[in-house]
Structures are given as structure tokens and as C-alpha cells.
Amino acid sequence: MKAKEGVINILNKILTADLTAINQYFVHAKMCENWGYERLHHKVRERSIAEMKDADELIGHILYLEGVPNVQRMNTVQVGETVPEQLKLDLKAEQEMLALLSDGVVHCTKMTDFTTRHMFEDMAQDVDQHIDWIETQLETIKQVGLENYLAEQIKKES
Ligand SMILES: [Fe+2]
Ligand SMILES: [Fe+2]
What we know:
The protein is mainly alpha-helical and 158 residues long. The protein has helices spanning 7-35, 38-64, 83-110, 114-144, 146-153. The structure holds fe (ii) ion (FE2) (2 copies).
């Protein structure tokens, strides 16, 4: 099926953001593991894998629309040196992703590409969950203090 005008371009932009996020979250997860924060390691690693599933879906959809998936391009991977820095950078990545997906939904509506639009809406729901989780962590740090928060991260998540 041939893509409507501009749709492949948006799909590739979102793919670039996802490929960047996969790497950023993966590095953050590894750093947490290295610091001994088992719970965080698992949670952040899970988020990296979720982005991988998005990339998988995006590449499949670009091919289905007879486009060329751009897997060479990547944005800057922003690595935080502390847990709060990591959370803030990941939050920024998710917010940027949400902006791209929102633009995508608007464009697909205009072009009457409802399949792609639905895909973007599903991905935006995941972004909402990711943002919610990160915001909860930042709020907990504010309330109980960083040391107490980090002490809880040593245990493996239930
Ligand atoms: Fe994603
Ligand atoms: Fe995400």
C-alpha cells in the first residue's frame, strides 16, 4: 500500500526518536545495574525493550507503506550521571516523543490515514505511562529524599 504524502517522513522521525530512546534507556539501565540498583535496572530495561517493540512496529509499517525505514539516523543519546539526571533526561525524551506523535496524529487525520493514526495513538498511550512512571519517581525522590529512594532501589522489583 502506498503511503499518503508526508507519512513516511513522520514515521521515520518517530523511528529515529525510538532508536535513540532504546539506546539511552539501555545505557541508563546498565548504569543502574552497575550501581547495584536492581529495581531500577529492571524497570528502565523494560522501558528500553518497550521502545524496541515500537521500533519493530514502525519499521514494519514503513515497509508495508512501501517506504524505506531510516535506521542509520539517531539523535543525541543523553546520558545522565546520576539517577535523578537520568530520570529527567528520559522524561525529556518521552515528552519529545509525545510531541512527535501528536503531530503525527494531526497529519494522519488530515491525510485520512487512520491505520497509521491509530498506531500513533497506541504509542502515545505508552508514552503517557512512561511519563507517569518517571514523574512518580521524581516526586517520590522529592518527598522521601534521594538516599531513601535509592535504598529502596537495591531490592528487585516485585
Ligand atoms: Fe516509543
Ligand atoms: Fe516511551
